[in-house]
Amino acid sequence: MHVLLIEDDTALREALAAYLQAAGHRVTLAGDGDAGLAAAEAELPDVVVTDLIMPGREGIETLLALRRRHPRLPVIVMSGGGRLDARAHLGVAERLGAVATLAKPFRPALLLEAIARAVTRG
């Protein structure tokens, strides 16, 4: 399965990518929302996993743009919350169309479960 992973934290992005690749997924990486949208246009993934709080185009903006351009593309949103509680951010993402949300820190196995559920819902 092709996963587009949008995360501005380089260490977390690389760690999650390694985990997903070890589980058999092909992963495209993006460091912010603009790069993620460009990657999705270059080659549509099966699922997108995006952080919410990023410099430049934030995750909510990225989620909305992906939903407009590719309404059936499953998007999973993750967040540590920043200055606010992660649950507040993630609740907004769910209301705007995220198929699953993950509060950081999370066990990587939860990401694999969310991806499996997301693609079976589509």
Structure in words:
The chain has 122 residues and is of the alpha/beta class. The chain has helices at residues 10-22, 33-42, 59-69, 86-95, 108-121; strands at residues 2-6, 26-30, 47-51, 75-79, 100-103. The chain has one domain: Response regulator (Rossmann fold). The chain is built from five helices and five strands. 34% of the residues are buried.
Taken together, the total number of domains comes to 1
- Helix-strand category: alpha/beta
Sheet having the most strands: 5 strands, parallel
Q: How far apart lie the N and C ends?
A: 14 Å
**Portion in helices:** 40-55%
CATH architecture: 3-Layer(aba) Sandwich
Low-confidence sequence ranges: none
- Spatial order of the strands forming the largest sheet: 2-1-3-4-5
List the secondary-structure elements in sequence, H or E.
EHEHEHEHEH
Task: Find the CATH topology.
Answer: Rossmann fold
Going by CATH, the homologous superfamily would be: Response regulator
* Helix run count: 5
Rg over CA atoms, rounded to whole Å, is 13 Å
Mean pLDDT: 90
